[in-house]
Write a structure and sequence with these properties.
This protein has 169 residues and is of the alpha/beta class.
Length: 169
Amino acid sequence: MTSRPAATDQSGVERAGRRTRRQGTARSDAAAPDSVYGVRTAAQVMNRCPPVADQNTSVWGAWGRLRGPDSQYIVVIDRRLRPLGVLEARDLALRWPPGPFDAHRLPVRQLLNGSVGPQARGEDAVATVARAMLAARTDAVPVVDDDGRLVGLVTARHCIELVACRVVV
């Protein structure tokens, strides 16, 4: 995959973030060059296809969507694709209902603590998203578009990978 240099205005500031927001889709290109100040955005590091579950999905059904090494979190959404919260695989395991069929009946919305956690925008700097994670004591933050719909997920692992890449280079 080749990357194109981002367009800059007269002050030398990258305009790619504004252009992608107007088009309605944020571009994520891991090989994209850093902006003038070396700041990465949430759209550049996020997982664009995180596991999701409708709020009425059973705990059993949500557990079934957590597949693969990068599927540690599941985003619970409403019918308009707006995130209601993020559940970690550990949360599902620790709050698994005791009966043999209760996991098929219990909706994931009942595992959420009731308050919507922090959310990020695609143009937010990764450092801003990381501060929101620290403040909320969470390891994953959903990324939303202008209408509040889910477009991706930034995890603590994404932040660590970014730092590790910086240190190695």
